[in-house]
Structure formats: structure tokens, C-alpha cells
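Ticket #4471: structure export looks truncated?
Reporter: QA, pipeline team
Priority: medium

Steps to reproduce: submit the single chain below to the structure queue and open the exported record.
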Amino acid sequence: MADPRGVNGALVPLSEAQAGAGNTAPSAASTGVVPLFSPAAASRLFIGRVPLTEAGQAAATAAAAQPNPSMRCEPIGILQDWSYDSPVNRITQDEKTIKLEYGKFDYARTIHLDQSAHPANLEPSVTGHSIGRWENDVLIVHTVGVRAGPLTRGLVHSEALDLTERFSLDPQTQALTREFVAADALFFREPYAGEDVVHPSNVPYEPDACDDRSLR
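Actual output as written to the record:
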């Protein structure tokens, strides 16, 4: 499954790229575009869209001063990496689990279908602990225990993150929609909600061969 190139993703549609060929790239000052993990990005992308507590504001400001984790081949966040830079993702299922392999940074999540509660004293991790259940044809996934860090562009979460995702497949187009609600009692004054869509890929899934550009 992959985000189609130029649609809801980070890539420019081919028609626009061809139309602008040979032109000098506009500056950030003229376009209003700011670097992804800059302090300005943090303030413009999510601060204000998701009301933050004082602790959340402080964490967002501190995180904005740090380099983009993807430059070190590290996961960005449980939400963003699913469609970040239009990767090819893979989904596999057995009787007890569903595995989501993100096409970036070798990021893999296991959704437990045979559990109804999260373990006590859960040690926070990059992927957290996910349990899933089917509601007709919709897979509902609840995740806790995610290590504090970026959630998506300009927005960071604490270890109190409580994430609910709803995956639904369109039988006609095979488009897979993920709706999500992310709550964080420490950093967010109200939940952050949204959705993304991926489609069947015409190229196979391959583990990410990331180039660590932070070493250059």
C-alpha cells in the first residue's frame, strides 16, 4: 500500500514539475514555506491547530530546534511515517496478529487481535503496544505506551499518548483509509484527529535502505 505520487503526499505532481522546469526555485521568504522541523514550522503547522498545555508548548519548542529524525534514518512518528515520502507499506495477518511494516526506517508495528487489555507497567517504546478488534469490516486499533517524541509534523507527544485508529478498505478501489484520534492528557488540551489514505502499490515492498545523512 502506498500514497499515490503527488496526491496527499510530499511529492509534486509531474504536471507541476514539468511546468516549472528550468525556473529558479522560489525562496522560503517568498513562498511562506518553512523547513519541516524548524521552530516556525512547529508554530505554524500545529501549535494553534491543536491547543497545547504549557508542557506541550515547551516540548514542541524544544523539539523544533532538533534536526529532522529522518536524516538519521530514525522513525519520525507513529502517524507520519505511514505515508511519509510516499513509502510502500506492507500488511500481513495471521490468526492472532496484524503486522504493519512501514516503508520507511524499518518501522514495524504488531497489532494484537487476541488481547483485550494492554499489559500493566508497559515499558514505552517507539511502536508502543497495540490491540485491535473488528467492527464489521473496520479494524479498530488502540495504542498506548509510545515513547515520547514526534507524532507528525510540528507536533510532539508525551508518554501519555492514547491513539485510536480505524482502518477501512474500499472494496471497489482498494483504497485503505486510516482515521485517527490522538489524545495526550499532558501535552494536548484537546485530541488531534485526522485521516490518511493509501492505495495498492505497483512496486513491491522492500526494507528501507536509508542513507544516514547526519554522518556527512
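Status: closed, not a bug. The export was complete when the record was re-opened. Leaving a note from the reviewer for reference: Residues 54-64 form the longest helix (11 residues).
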